[in-house]
Amino acid sequence: MHESCGVFGVYAPNQDVARLTFFALFALQHRGQESSGIATTDGKSIQVYADTGLVSQVFDEDSLSRLTGNMAIGHNRYSTRGVSRKINVQPIVAGEGDSILAISHNGNITNVDLLQKELSERGYTFRTSTDTEVIAHLILSSPERDWVGRIRYAMRRLQGAYSLTIMTKDNLFAVRDPFGIRPLCLGMINGDWVVASETCALDHIGASFIREIEPGEIVSITENGVDSYREEINRRALCIFEYIYFARPDSVINDRLLYLARQDMGAGLAEEHPVEADLVIGVPDSATAAGIGYSYKSGIPWGEGLIKNRYVGRTFIEPDQRIRDLGVKLKFNPLRPLLEGKRVVLVDDSIVRGTTTPQVIKLLRKAGAKEVHMRICAPPICYPCFFGVDMATRWELIAAQKNVPEIRDFIGADSLGYLSVDGLIKAIALPKDIFCTACFTGDYPIPVQLEMDKLDTIPAGSYTPFGMKQR
Length: 471
Hints:
Blueprint: E1 2-3, E2 6-11, H1 17-27, E3 35-41, E4 46-52, H2 55-58, H3 61-65, E5 71-77, E6 92-94, E7 101-109, H4 112-121, H5 131-140, H6 147-157, E8 160-167, E9 172-176, E10 185-189, E11 192-196, H7 199-205, E12 208-212, E13 217-222, E14 225-230, E15 238-239, H8 241-246, E16 252-253, E17 256-257, H9 258-272, E18 279-282, H10 288-298, E19 306-308, H11 321-324, E20 332-334, H12 336-339, E21 343-348, H13 357-366, E22 371-376, E23 389-390, H14 398-401, H15 404-411, E24 415-418, H16 421-428, E25 435-436, H17 438-441
Parallel strand pairs: 15-25, 18-21, 21-22, 22-24
Antiparallel strand pairs: 1-23, 2-5, 2-11, 3-4, 3-5, 6-7, 7-8, 8-9, 9-13, 10-11, 10-12, 13-14, 16-17, 19-20
């Protein structure tokens, strides 16, 4: 399961904005590994450098030195709409003259095809297959003359999830959709202003956290300081998977450190699904905190039964079939002396398709584990996400096709326990009504087409019904 993108923006006339953005994107790398890009402006023109690959692969001293100015926005991409190719990298630049802008987007627009069709009929052309370009042209198509008015016009037409950083020649904007589905925060560094998807990016560049950008809010940053404009909201719907998996454990959302929330998820699992065992381990790194929480609550010793190769990630070298067949062995190596003859509680963040979990359990059994009891922080995922998470179609979700005993048998565990929705909310320690839990309950904050799916290609300027997958 992948999250869609990390965004960053900085207004700092006396600082190296490109370098600050580079290190912030480095901290947000977990939110997207397909491409990375930075746009800067000196008040006269906008420069962009972006390419496919990790932040450290895309940028070097030469490319950063050419990105000059007093403002910058940056983007890490994982595509949920639009094929992963160079033409779709962000930030995207649109417009011309005094109406030029650069934009980065985290989220997914559910009515994008209707908007793209409308804009195409009005003469706007599209060079990418991303919903980000549709947002840019929608802003530019507004009858309003000022930028805040233009953005407000777009917000009233857009449906879905979006956390945006937008840069004009003299203005930095941070925009969050009225549901607040994706996180966005405001910080300060040496008297200047920054915005980021997560607080961990602020920590990495030495910025201080000021506050979260509210659902439906437009934050405008200029040489005159910060202004805020609010749109009316009817319901908050922050994606609950930010707490379970997506955001880094050292980030803070809604005044809650995610590491502690995940630790409490593990404790909740121990309360709801106790078992006699000798050792608790977490699938590294996403379930480490939850595994420790399970251990504390249950009194069962904690151990690192799986060692993760932390250098396994995006590579441009295709493995041969022999290496591909190793599967999870490339990512995890079990510690046989710790596991041999033990009854093991294995804690993980979620089960989506159910393709990886059986391999991990087999790995533990082969290393000598006597029993493997699976415990999952996320309740059963029965419905797909349409708001920026590349999860799966419903027919691919194992919990939509099988009950818990059937899933237990399929993954090869001795027992299986999911944290309940109420237990998850208790661990997060925030009101339930501020979250989107649609992947568990089917209660989407806005109506969606259940056939929607990730598109492979969209010819420039064309209109394709969103997610109508050819079979």
